[in-house]
Amino acid sequence: MFDRDRTGTININEFSALWKYIGDWKACFERFDHDRSGTINTRELGDALTSFGYRLSPHFNQTLVKSFAARRSTGTSTEDAINFDDFIEACVTVKNLTDTFRRYDTQGTGVVTFGFEQYLDSVLQNIV
């Protein structure tokens, strides 16, 4: 992502961009960690995603938190909240899945129709 010249390493300029990216995410995390717990709970994640322009249900936000928190057996993520790393990954995943969905939503209606294999292909592009 930050190896713009595709050398397999990052130079000082690429590292600087990476450092800024992480700092921006950290500031975002801290802005939505309303209770200053060091984790983001379902409500806080919902607030963050809403500020990014998403209108997702509380149920989906809870599913997202539980999905990312469940993958980590150590650290600060719990069943009801995610840590900084999980927060970044959850937000980036939602954005990538949204971008994939929009490629199929040519009418901009929020509804698409596609076959099972197309669905699998679109999901695999985002998890592999």
Q: What order do the helices and strands come in, and which of them pair?
A:
Layout: H1 12-32, E1 40-41, H2 42-51, H3 58-70, E2 81-82, H4 84-104, H5 116-127
Helix pairs in contact: 2-3, 3-4
Give the distance, in angstroms, between the N- and C-terminal Cα atoms.
15 Å
Radius of gyration: 17 Å
**Backbone shape:** globular
Tell me how many strands there are.
Answer: 2
Order of helices and strands: HEHHEHH
Low-confidence stretches at least 5 residues in length (pLDDT < 50)? Answer: none
Strand order of the largest sheet: 1-2
- Average per-residue pLDDT, rounded, comes to 88
Question: Helical region count?
Answer: 5
Protein structure class: mainly alpha
Instruction: Work out the strand percent.
Output: under 5%
Major sheet = 2 strands, antiparallel
- Helical proportion? 55-70%
List keywords for this structure.
mainly alpha, 5 helices, 3% strand, 2 strands
Would you write up a description of this structure?
The chain has 128 residues and is mostly helical. It is 60% helix and 3% strand. It contains five helices and two strands. It has helices at 12-32, 42-51, 58-70, 84-104, 116-127, and strands at 40-41, 81-82. Strands 1-2 form a two-stranded antiparallel ribbon. Helix 2 packs across helix 3 (58-70) and helix 3 (58-70) crosses helix 4. The mean pLDDT is 88.
